[in-house]
Amino acid sequence: WWSFELLVLLSGLLANPKLEASVLSICLNTASLTFMIPFGLGAAISTRVSNELGAGRPEAARLATRVTMVLGLVTGVSLGLIMISVRNLWGYAYSNEKEVVEYIARMMPLLSVSIIFDDMQCVLSGVVRGCGLQRIGACVNLSAYYLVGIPAALCFAFVFHLGGMVLI
């Protein structure tokens, strides 16, 4: 969560800080909203995998994982398609400024792809927790966000001058 907030703060250093921070906040709010479904799937698969492994049924745990991954993928793709289809309207839920609404519409396809991958990350984190490997999951997630994600976003935004589009 803090990694996203850090990116919103850093968006204030871009060329048009008011627009960039506003749009990035809206996009991250949208991502948080869509995150709730895969978060529930992650919690469910964590419980299911731990119960199946505890009962000595690794094949059942594997099957439950596959089913939940498919559900996560279908959910992510569905949410992504919905976001793309309402991209020209979504900004009006947050702002009546045309510039903000148009920028959000341009960011929605990228946000949609991000939603798909974030859904899968959430489901797979639940699997890792269910296997009792919380430390490994935490290290992977922290490394992905703080050692790879933030530096890459900052590099693209400030070194290659791609702006707020790459901060989501």
From TrEMBL:
GO terms for molecular function: antiporter activity; xenobiotic transmembrane transporter activity. Residues 1-21 form the signal peptide. One of its GO terms (cellular component) is membrane. Belongs to the multi antimicrobial extrusion (MATE) (TC 2.A.66.1) family. It holds the Pfam family MatE. The chain crosses the membrane at residues 31-49, 70-90, 144-167. It comes from the Eukaryota. This is Protein DETOXIFICATION. The keyword Transmembrane helix applies. InterPro entries: MATE_fam. Keywords: Membrane, Signal, Transmembrane, Transmembrane helix.
